[in-house]
Amino acid sequence: MSKQFEISSLPQVHTHEFDMSEATKKPIGQMDFEDDFANTTQNVVTIDNNFLLESNSYYIDANKATHVLCMGDETYRFWIDKAKKMNDKSFGQFGNFIINKYQTRDNEPIIVIEGDKFKYKDSLMNEDQIKLLMYYIFKKMDSKVNDKYSILYISKDNSLPLSVIQSVLSYFPNKYRKNLNKIFLLLLPTFGITFKTSIWGKEDMDKIVIVKSLYELYEYLPVGLYQFPSWVIDTYTREEHKIFGVPLKEAVTTNYRGISDIPFVVECAIQYLSTANGALSTEGIFRVSGNKEQVDAYCKNFDHCKICSFSKDESPHLVSTLLRRYLQKLPEPVLTNQLGSIIIETFEHIEDDKAQQDKHKSDLKELIKKLPLENRKLLLSILNLGTLIAMDGTNKMDKKNISTIFGQCLYWKNEGKPSVDELTGALANNDLFVFMMDNIYDFVDVLTE
Predict the structure, then answer these.
(1) What are the residue ranges of helices labelled H in 142-257?
(2) CA 440 to chain centre
(3) Model's pTM, two decimal places?
(4) What are phi and psi of 39, to 5 degrees?
(5) What is the per-residue pLDDT across 335-362, written as a single tens digit (0 to 9) for each?
(6) What is the CA radius of gyration of the chain?
(7) How far apart are CA 177 and CA 134, in angstroms?
């Protein structure tokens, strides 16, 4: 097949090393791995000049200039046309180890390669198998690499498919190399990888990220987008990153957040309650508490970034209790210490002065508009959830009942944690919550802009 030459001068000798054993030496805060990891002999591989030259994707000429060898444009067009015409059954021997449906927080494609599902990783492939593999890769990846993209490679094997990598490197067209932003390697901490090469420069090395904490990866990948295997959760979530009891601004800017602009606990709970079969119809939802030990365990797991979503089989009472606890542990009311009392007072004028109701409603909207955006979006999310619960009709939780749950978090008079009596007696809060549910469409604009 034809090859395209891309010529650049040989960079100065550059050695860049990554060693996964550093993960067991507490690279970020406290990361204490299980004893079975600590006592396992490291398997260390080295990527050097010989490895890259043997892949036939680079060569160094007599003048010590480095040349990049990649698939030429004409050949690429032939291959991609054929790949597009092939059906999925043609690739059955490889399994579905490439997933191309995810995006980073910057809306760039991130292609997940589940290495453990690739059965040829430990064996040599013949030429026909390599070609079929490239057709599979092109069909899965080509539409995602026309602009900047990233790759997440996940494997619990103490190895990398080095022979396969060597075999396919020279087949890739230039755009696959040029547009690659990051390669995230999520491997066991007992596996070591070292790069010692003058062929790859600093720009190439900076694209390679050895993942040592899921919290770090979540800077790029929204939580819950991809369901990590249990070994990843167990291994790379040892450090605490509190989400319960932290300021709302911090909760919506932490790496441990999902795809929305609300705290991740709230997002998970709403997603579960609105999609799990029969959850909203559960009698006494939010009024009946979940098991305390299980709730405590969930809180701890959320604070260690271990939760990506709730199982569809989870108890609705447990999920609703977790959401209640999260809201109750907010260090400041949703309506804020600064504006809460003024908003409540303005609302009471609406109730007392029907003749001027439109004016007072307008005043209320202007005050709510002054709340921080994260507070307004959280308020809208619990108003929508409260409305869904009240509309169900079978759970014995009407608007008045649900307002006694969510009204508590709107405002409390003291700046510390409110007492039970203060929360129970905040009737104006409850009435305001019912009023906003009844008039939700009048407030959507100020709650979202």
Answers:
(1) 162-168, 174-178, 202-205, 214-217, 230-235, 248-251
(2) 30
(3) 0.83
(4) -100, 5
(5) 999 999 899 888 887 766 666 778 878 8
(6) 28
(7) 15
